[in-house]
Design the sequence.
């Protein structure tokens, strides 16, 4: 079984920065990608960013390019550095493990989520 534990969420003002972290444990798959999704109240869950096994390749949703940076410390840790936060970034952020499928990142395992709230 795979466990993903997120940390670093909180309440910040618009324009601030926040860093989310995620640690994987258990029977993790081989050479997996890690990524982040988010879900705001009343909205569908959406892709935010993903990073390859090596950490060299990163992928972002258009709405976070230039503001968010995903990184990978090692095989089981990933971080999402968020800058210039906007109220519309308010959501529950989920850490995932997955693979590249076709033309997109496809998650297989999900964390419980961490809440990010950005006040105006």
Sequence:
């Amino acid at each position: 079984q795979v466990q993903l534990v997120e940390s670093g969420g909180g309440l910040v003002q618009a324009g601030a920065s926040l860093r989310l972290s995620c640690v994987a444990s258990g029977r993790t798959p081989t050479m997996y990608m890690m990524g982040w999704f988010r879900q705001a109240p009343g909205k569908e869950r959406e892709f935010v960013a993903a990073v390859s096994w090596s950490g060299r390749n990163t992928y972002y949703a258009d709405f976070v390019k230039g503001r968010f940076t995903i990184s990978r410390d090692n095989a089981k840790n990933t971080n999402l550095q968020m800058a210039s936060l906007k109220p519309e970034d308010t959501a529950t952020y989920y850490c995932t493990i997955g693979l590249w499928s076709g033309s997109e990142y496809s998650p297989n395992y999900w964390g419980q989520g961490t809440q990010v709230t950005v006040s105006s």
Summary: The mean pLDDT is 95. The radius of gyration is 13 Å. The CA atoms of residues 34 and 97 lie 5 Å apart. DSSP finds no helices and eleven strands in the chain.
